[in-house]
Design a protein that fits this description.
alpha+beta; 8 helices; Cation-dependent Mannose-6-phosphate Receptor, Chain A; binds 2-acetamido-2-deoxy-beta-D-glucopyranose; Mannose 6-phosphate receptor domain-containing protein
Length: 366
Amino acid sequence: MHLQSPSRVVLLAILSLASIAVADDATKTTISSTPAITPCVATSTNGAFFDLRPDAAVVVQKDEKPPKGVPTEDYVAKGWDYGSNFTLNICNPVVKRVDDVVGVDKALWKNISAYYETKGKVHSLGLQSGTLVPRGRKLVLQYTGGSPCGASDKSRDKRAGVHEGARYKYNDFDDDGEDEGDYYAPRRTSKDDEDDKGGKKDKDRQKDEPVRRKSATISFLCDHDPDTPTAFSFVGTDPDECAYFFEVRSQHACAGAEPHKPGSVGPGSVFAIIFFITVLVYVVGGVFYQRTVAHARGWRQLPNYSLWSGIWSFVKDLFVILTSSCARIIPRRRGYHTLSGSPNGRRESRDDENRLIDQLDEEWDD
Ligand SMILES: *[C@@H]1O[C@H](CO)[C@@H](O)[C@H](O)[C@H]1NC(C)=O
Ligand SMILES: *[C@@H]1O[C@H](CO)[C@@H](O)[C@H](O)[C@H]1NC(C)=O
């Protein structure tokens, strides 16, 4: 009987090792066959991992408590000489509701991720996107599909309206496939501005020709200082006011280590496997040595049997000592305490008795 026990242990060890390996393989294959794309997360070709999700401002309902450490307000980039400030969010749509956006379908207003306001009108710089693109040490995020291009204010202005409604009208006149860029600006007249609100024409136009729309390109820079808040700066726009460029400094734009994906073998399981194999080799090798060289039998075949049994009895003793001392400390067990004759309580009352007797003795003496 005793002879078999160690080998049974070894067998069990091998079996469980095998099952761990099989389980690992199973999860790995299922995960890798369906790679999940997480928005706002990117892995560059050199293995650097970026996760900007902590920088994305989230909408908090009125009665909800804002989550800790998560931004709940949009980012503002000062426009400086541009004349308007920009409101943006990272990966998510802007938290602040926007209404009456120039040239954008009402259904998409809730998807706008960047905009600026001028003369009370909101110009979108693009719709929400979570596609982070790592380019070398830079991380780039782009929002596209904003308001139609064209300067929006003052003097350059008359183009301002180069708003599709108007363009569509011209197309009716000379529909000869001329390059649109050539003609729309000069022929624009101020009375056309009235057409800007023509939603119906907008719709007609959308069927007709592709419209150039504003976009925002955001470049993220790593800032290791955790005390610096994530901040946007406006870099510039092209003369058509079509493409807008921003720079963001954030600690989350620093390359980090990719978190352990479920299913792959992480450092913890690698350690566990190595540990397991080491133990296995130790046990198998030890048994082999004890049997063949030392001719041991029974439990004594286990390597360092006396050492391990010593440790085991030590642990057992320790356990007994700890439990008994715990039993003494824990007040809940007062029942036992008094039963077993609490040394403390008894001694105190005995001290009192002694003091009384002493007092009495003194009084007698007087
Ligand atoms: C932009 O924001 C600054 C403060 O950050 C403010 O002083 C300025 O008036 C704003 N400009 C516009 C056009 O709203
Ligand atoms: C707009 O946002 C909604 C979710 O809020 C999403 O389901 C939809 O696909 C978005 N549309 C576009 C064009 O991004």
